[in-house]
Write a structure and sequence with these properties.
With about 200 residues, the chain is α+β, with helices and mostly antiparallel strands. It has helices spanning about 1-25, 40-45, 50-65, 130-135, 145-155, 165-175, 190-200, and strands spanning about 35-40, 65-70, 105-110, 115-125, 160-165.
Length: about 200
């Protein structure tokens, strides 16, 4: 279900990028036809001498678009790829690929920034088994008394999945902009605006 959902989101991103290219031919669509799935443990084994961010850059530059799953639990080197709360996504359950985790990030290669670029963080939310297990791992079992936690542990809430898609990040990627200020209206100090203009960035 997680993979099917990722594929639907990715298809929407590709469709949007093609529509932008149709309207603004100078902006070339660059997303590959398919998104590559890889676990954080597989990524560590592929690039054992790189840190987490460097691994993301390397794999995303190679494939163009990646869903990196199983983020939050300790890997074989004893370190988690990135932090995740115990009571959010399920990063500890065994999945059908033989790895841990039912969550992940959609990453694309951003040639403007010359780096991997996260567009979405998502996943299957914890069920009561995963919640109890992850709270033990993170030594925060006292949270079981909180409203959400106690309701989930007592089968009073439905199982769910979800995630966030960065709207400004998607706009940055689609329009090939290098700074969030180019796609998002906000208040900037004049000296900061001038500094960015000197770098060729015209913020809103």
């Amino acid at each position: 279900m997680l993979k099917e959902t990722v594929l639907k989101i990715y298809d929407s991103l590709r469709y949007t990028e093609k529509e932008v290219e149709n309207k603004y031919p100078q902006i070339q669509a660059i997303l590959p036809e398919t998104i590559t799935f890889i676990s954080s443990e597989e990524l560590l084994q592929k690039y054992p001498n790189l840190n987490a961010k460097e691994r993301e850059n390397a794999i995303t530059k190679e494939y163009g678009a990646v869903f990196l799953y199983g983020i939050g639990g300790a890997l074989s080197n004893g370190v988690a790829h990135d932090g995740r709360a115990a009571d959010y996504d399920d990063w500890s359950t065994d999945n059908e690929a033989g790895h841990k985790g039912l969550n992940g990030d959609i990453l694309v290669w951003n040639p403007v920034l010359n780096a991997a670029f996260e567009l979405s963080s998502m996943g299957i939310r914890v069920d009561k088994t995963a919640l109890a297990h992850q709270m033990e791992i993170r030594n925060c079992t006292e949270k079981s008394k909180l409203t959400f936690h106690s309701m989930l542990l007592n089968d009073q809430l439905p199982e769910s999945m979800g995630g966030g898609i960065g709207q400004s990040r998607v706009c940055m990627f689609m329009l090939k902009k290098q700074h969030i200020g180019e796609v998002q209206v906000s208040i900037w100090e004049e000296d900061k605006k001038e500094s960015l203009r000197q770098k060729g960035i015209d913020i809103l």
